[in-house]
Structures are given as C-alpha cells and as structure tokens.
Amino acid sequence: MYKDIDLDNIDLTQEPPTQEPQRQYYFMAKMREIVKEKSKELGRPLSAVAVTFGCQMNAKDSEKLLGILRKIGFEIIEDESADLVFFNTCTVRDNANQRVYGRLGFLHSMKKKNSDKKIALCGCMMQEPSVIEKIKKSYSFVDLIFGTHNIYKFAELLTTMYTSERMVIDIWKDTDQIVEDLPSERKFSFKCGVNIMYGCNNFCSYCIVPYVRGRERSRNPKDIIREIEQLVSEGVVEVMLLGQNVNSYGKTLEEPMTFAELLQEVEKIEGLERIRFMTSHPKDLSDELIQVMKNSKKICKHLHLPLQAGSTKILTAMNRRYTKEQYLALAKKIRTEIPDIALTTDIIVGFPGETLEDVEETIEVVKEVQYDNAFTFIYSKRTGTPAAAMENQVPEEVVKEGFDKLLKVVQETARERVSRLEGQVQGALVEEINEHDNSLVTGRLSNNTIVHFPGDASLIGKIVDVRLKECHGFYYIGELI
After folding, report:
1. Rounded to an integer, what distance in angstroms lies between the CA atom of residue 152 and that of residue 27?
2. Concatenated DSSP letters of 26-66
3. What is the pTM for the complete model shown?
4. Alpha-carbon distance 251 to 16, whole Å?
5. How far from chain centre, in Å, is Cα 466?
6. CA gap 360, 429 in Å, rounded
7. 3-state SS assignment for residue 150
8. What is the tens place of the pLDDT at every residue in 323-358?
C-alpha cells in the first residue's frame, strides 16, 4: 500500500512508470521536490485548502486530493488565502455553479496580489463542456481544471501545472479505470466514507450525474474489504459505503456480486461497529438486502430511499422506473420486516408538468410512509438533461405553493416519527463537541438522529449509551448512562 512507499527512494532521473499507481508515486516524489523548492523560496511551508461542494462522493474525493497534498509536503489550512486553492465542484443544481463563479471572482483579486497563488478546479461541474469554455473565456487566471474520472492523476497534473505557464485542462469523457492505493486525508478519525462504485446508469431525466460521473463501475470487493480493514486498524468504527446507486453494485465485476453479499462480507470485519450506505434506488432494492439489514448487528437502522415524486405520471416523466404503488409496497415491506428502521427520502417539487394535484399525491405518500426526515428541493433546470427541454415548465408561484404545503406535512410527520424514541436508551456515536455549547457533545444514533448531551472530548469516537430525555423536533437532548 501507499503507506509503505518511500518517496525518497524513487529515482526521478528515470522516465515515469506507465503502470498505476506507481506512476502517481513517481509524480508525488517529483512534486515533493517542487514543494520543497517553493517553500524554501518563500521561507515558509506551501499551504493548500480544499473547498468542497455537493455530495458525500465529492467529500470523499476531496479527502483523496488532500491526502496527496499532505504527502507531497503541503500544509493543509482552512483559508482561501492558501498558496493552492482547489474547488471540488457540484453541478446538480445551477446555483452550485453560480457559487463557484462567485468564489472565483474573489480569488482573482487575491491572485492579483500574489502571482504565485494557484487555483485548481475539479469535480462534476468541470465535466460540462460549456463550463470549460466559460472558464477559458472569463476566468483565464485558473491554473488547473480536471474532472471526476481522473482525480487519481492529481500529483501528475500538479506537476504539469507547476512546471508550465499555461492553464492545464485534463477532462476525460469517461473511464472504466479504478486506481487503488493512493493517500487520503480523513476528516474524522473514527468514521469514514468508502467508495464501492462510481458512476450511474439510471439517467433520471432531471439529473446531470450520469453525464458527469460516467457509467457504473464497481470496485473489486477484495479492495473494498482491504481498505475497510485498514481503516479499522486505524481506529475507524463506522463506515459509509458510497455509490450513486449502491443497490446495483457488482454488476460490472468479472464475478458479479450483489450489494447484499458485499454487506455480509463487510460485516465480518472485526472491530467495525457500524455500517451505513447511500444512495439506494427503489427500483433495485432487493428482498435479499432487506433480509441482510434485518438480521445484521452492524448495519445501521437507517435507509435513505429517494421518492422524488408521489405521482406515477411525474415518476414516469422523471424516468424513475417505478410507480407510486410499487414504492409504497416497498416501503411497507421494509417497515414490516424492520419496524425500528428510520426511512428518509428526497423529494423534488416543480418538475415540468407537475400540478398541485400531483403534489397532493406526493403528500399522500409522505403521510403513508411516515418519513423520519425528507430533503425537499425545488426543481432546478439543468442544461443537458432531457427535463430541461420539456414543455410545461411550472410557474414559480405554483411551485412555491406546492413546496410550502409539502414542507409543512414533512415537518409534522417527521417530528412525530422522531419523538417516538423519547425516554429510550440508545447507542450514540459521539462525533464532536457541540458547536453551540462546549459542555455538551453531539452524537448520532443508529437511525441517524442527532442527540446532544453533557460530555467532553474524551468521548469523541466512542459509541455510548444515552437516555433520550427531550425531543426537539429533529434532535434530542439526552444524558449519558
């Protein structure tokens, strides 16, 4: 593994290897020499900061990029005054793009005062050709642009950036390559996300992700298990298995394996106490997975099951490939088999052609399923998706009316679901000192509910028993048992 690699023993007088990840180790060694020289010139360490937009997949990618930066000698800070700033971008909604453009304008003024400052852009937004053209035209001060398929080449791309005077652009349309054994800089010592697959094959009509993340490709299960075993040896007690649609894991492997089978293998890892995963697509959630979750001692009692809409007409237009009735039957089956599970969901309001009657159908589903939480979004038109070209775009005032009505019902039903645990004793993984009151710590129950209770930093990373005394809507105040 990369931890056994001694960068000082890599011969930089030779041509770089052609095989991965050895090629990247070579460029890490080369970049480390560049960082040493630059730091000597400045009389201080070179600094870097990561600004991450978007989902858990992006957060995991940023950990990998930060791990490489740390390995080659950068000091990691939390300030955009850093010598190297990289934005790991999201493009699910247009406002995410606008936020990036806004930050770039701010960085430009900083770069004018510091000509050595470097700016790198990566992530989903960079996979859109129109974005690249806009950056080349209006933000020519950016130094490096790369996408979602080649983040493992970060050290190589940095080397090119630091040894040239031009904007470096390296965007791949797609890939089936997965490169293992590269550094990672974890945010938490006790929990970690683990990619099990990349890309998506579903092509929901509103979603840009398959176009920017590529087609599904699953990691080898042995590599996944090896990574988790290493994490557990370093003190990790909870892992989050990540994929755009984890339920279709294993279909691209030479020896196909179901997601349920992978979970059973992960559960065997000694020292691992909790397993989470996301995201699940309802059309692929199997009876086998429900049974594995039901019988597991480690899989958390939480399932995120995106609904998106409660009207079959709208679901069909969204290309979700299930009906309202099929979704309700699945939710009922899950609740019957695992009564104490927390179900959460995503819902979009204002999809083209949606009427207030369609929103009422969504509200019916919310009332019937009784979600523990729901993330509600107003439809955002994404150029390049089929939905963006659809007629019957919904007027803003109609969207707002439906959204407000849905949100009220979501909040009411979620409060009722969460409050059912009041008075119980539950295990909570302590994650941090409470950000508003340092006499409290903040923990997370198996069902993903947050609880705040008296404690100190010595509890962080431990799973402790907590009595849930008072429910405050979406969180609890508790006491350590």
Report:
1. 11
2. HHHHHHHHHHHHHHHHHTS--EEEEEE-SSHHHHHHHHHHH
3. 0.83
4. 34
5. 28
6. 38
7. coil
8. 999 999 999 999 999 999 999 999 999 999 999 999
